[in-house]
Design a protein that fits this description.
Strand content of chain B: 15-25%
Distance between the termini of chain A: 46 Å
CATH class of the largest domain in chain A: Mainly Alpha
Largest sheet of chain A: none
Number of helices of chain A: 9
Number of domains of chain B: 1
Strand order of the largest sheet of chain B: 1-2-3-7-6-5-4
Structural class of chain A: mainly alpha
Radius of gyration of chain B: 23 Å
Structural class of chain B: alpha+beta
Oligomer: heterodimer
Strand content of chain A: under 5%
Number of strands of chain A: 0
Distance between the termini of chain B: 57 Å
Number of domains of chain A: 2
Order of helices and strands of chain B: HHHEEEEEEEHH
Number of strands of chain B: 7
Order of helices and strands of chain A: HHHHHHHHH
CATH architecture of the largest domain in chain A: Orthogonal Bundle
Largest interface: A-B, 70 and 59 residues
């Protein structure tokens, strides 16, 4: 039987890339995303006996990630935004300007609205799943989603099409 | 009404495509994330252990403590009989004597001993047993205990480790907690004791950093922890839930804090769980068993401190299956 660290390492290795991409879209910064994912993995390891017996450890991990992000945002000043560059080692690049456009658009949304968009349109989750992940009602998810999409349309305008086509 | 209106599919699809395009070229630093996550997790576990155990004092000084009979304590259960005599307790060494060498404590031996200390008639189902290498540097016994009172069985767990931390780790908190939540320190003939009634998410002075505030949260968690004078850390706790972080399934845990105190101070542990029979805690580079979890927003610690010191006690990690 595998030990706790073995099982955890297997899970973390398989899931950390996806968690990182989600964290990057949420936080908008490479180093903050690293920090958020490491914090999430740390919390999962701390409670690994419970995590591994969960019906869906992936969903559990995502919930920890999103709630860690929202908790962190609550503790930071509302005006603070950290949108850093992406390391050269990160791999082949999309047009950096387009990428920054998306991040800056997301940055103008309240954290919960941003989390709703990331879960629904990056993680491809339903309204029900998103509500469960965020611990709020489906109505709240719908409202936030509508409001955030409207704002993204206003902020990005034609850039959104350019991003999608990139 | 606007909330019932459906967003045009085009915008949703465009945003989804944009997000995928923006992350498509990424090469996330997977190895660094995993190393850092494991290091933080180990520190978080160490902090949690430090919160429930106490520091070691130095000298072996066993003696004076009589056999503790659980039936004498506060449960009032008609089924509770006298505690079984402690198995194979040798004559206590005098202070300053050369400590005898003891067999390393295993979870199986701890279980066997713990069963003799539970009130008569209580049924035990083993959820898991852990030896060093499986769950950090502790011996752990995780049980569901059924007192046959018509209510569900709930958790009783016991943890053992060698000298660790500082004496301050075992001091009770001092803020004003909600009714029913308390903590008290006692000095016993063979060590320092902490008794506590708390919640699974413990009470805290504030709700900062996701803490639960003065009322705590989750199931009731009643505990007794002792650091004996020989440095052994023994901690027992009982909850009124059947699974970790699960719902409360009975009014109170199946053991009172007095009964838990009787368990952790039972003389039988002086030999079965002597300090030299217990695993030494995993330490980080600074030599401390418990360090603060870094705040979210700090630099990556993938190269990190406290990452992978192996457990000292025992040989290779072992696997123990639940006894059913």
């Amino acid at each position: 039987m595998a030990t706790d660290p073995d099982e955890f390492l297997e899970f973390a290795t398989a899931r950390s890339a996806q968690l990182f991409r989600t964290a990057w879209l949420l936080s908008g910064d490479w180093h903050l995303a690293e920090d958020l994912v490491q914090t999430t993995l740390g919390k999962l390891y701390r409670s690994w006996r419970r995590v591994k017996s969960a019906d869906n450890p992936d969903a559990y991990a995502r919930t920890v990630l999103v709630r860690s992000y929202l908790s962190w945002r609550r503790r930071r000043s509302s005006g603070e935004q950290a949108y850093g560059t992406i390391p050269d080692s990160a791999g082949p690049e999309l047009d950096p300007a387009l990428r920054m456009t998306l991040l800056k658009g997301l940055a103008q949304l309240p954290p919960k609205d941003r989390a709703v968009l990331v879960l629904r349109y990056w993680e491809d989750m339903s309204v029900e799943q998103t509500a469960r992940q965020m611990g709020c009602s489906q109505g709240a998810v719908r409202n936030r989603s509508l409001r955030a999409l409207e704002k993204m349309r206003t902020i990005l305008g034609g850039d959104l099409q350019a991003l999608a086509a990139a | 009404m606007s909330t019932e209106r459906h967003e045009p599919h085009g915008t949703e699809a465009t945003l989804a495509d944009a997000m995928h395009a923006a992350t498509a070229g990424f090469q996330p630093p997977t190895a660094e994330l995993v190393r850092g996550g494991l290091a933080r997790g180990r520190r978080m576990r160490a902090v949690r252990r430090a919160q429930v155990t106490v520091a070691a004092l130095a000298v072996v000084a066993i003696g004076g403590a009589g056999t503790v009979a659980l039936s004498d304590l506060g449960s009032g259960s008609a089924k509770a009989g006298p505690a079984a005599p402690p198995p194979s307790v040798s004559a206590p060494p005098s202070a300053g004597a050369t400590p005898q060498q003891h067999q390393p404590l295993t979870a199986e031996k701890a279980l066997e001993t713990l069963k003799t200390l539970l009130p008569a008639g209580y049924d035990v189902k083993v959820q898991s047993l852990s030896n060093p290498g499986q769950n950090g540097s502790q011996v752990g016994v995780y049980l569901l205990v059924d007192p046959h009172d018509g209510k569900p069985a709930t958790m009783v767990n016991m943890l053992f480790s060698g000298p660790m931390g500082s004496s301050d780790d075992n001091k009770c908190w001092t803020f004003h907690a909600a009714e029913g939540i308390w903590c008290t320190n006692e000095t016993t003939p063979n060590g320092s004791l902490r008794l506590e009634q708390n919640r699974e998410w413990p009470a805290s002075e504030t709700t900062e950093d996701d803490k639960r505030g003065p009322a705590g949260g989750g199931a009731k968690q009643w505990s007794a922890g002792i650091i004996r004078k020989d440095g052994a850390n023994i901690y027992a706790y009982a909850t009124n839930g059947a699974v970790e972080k699960g719902a409360e399934v009975r009014t109170n845990p199946v053991l009172t804090t007095d009964q838990l105190k009787a368990i952790v101070t039972a003389p039988v542990w002086d030999t079965v769980a002597a300090a030299d029979a217990l695993p030494k805690p995993v330490t980080n580079k600074s030599g401390s068993a418990g360090t603060q979890t870094p705040a979210w927003g700090s630099k990556s610690d993938a190269a990190g401190s406290g990452a992978a010191a192996p457990p000292v006690h025992g040989a290779a990690p072992t696997t123990v299956k639940p006894a059913g």
